[in-house]
Amino acid sequence: MGAARLIIVDDEKDLLELLVNRLKRKGYEVDFAENAEDAISLLQNQFYDIAIYDIRLPKMDGITLLKETKKIQPEIQVLMLTGHGTIETAIEAMKLGAFDYLAKPYNLTELEIAITKAVENKTLIEKNDSMRKIIKQHNSFQIIGKNPHFKALLELTERVANSDVPVLIEGESGTGKELFAKALHYWSNRAEEPFVAINSGALPEQLLESELFGHVKGAFTGANQDKKGLVEAANGGTLFLDELGEMPLVLQVKLLRFLETGEFRRVGDVRERKVHVRTVGATNRHLEKEVANGNFREDLYYRLNVVRLTIPPLRERKEDLTLLIHHFVKNGKTLSPEAMATLQKYHFPGNVRELHHLLERGVLLSKGDTIEADDLLLANVQKVNLKDVSTYQLCTLEQLEKEHIEKVLSEVEWNKTKAANVLGVSVRNLYRKIEQYQLEEK
Question: How big is the CA angle at 315 (ends 312 and 316), to the nearest 5 degrees?
Answer without folding.
Answer: 50
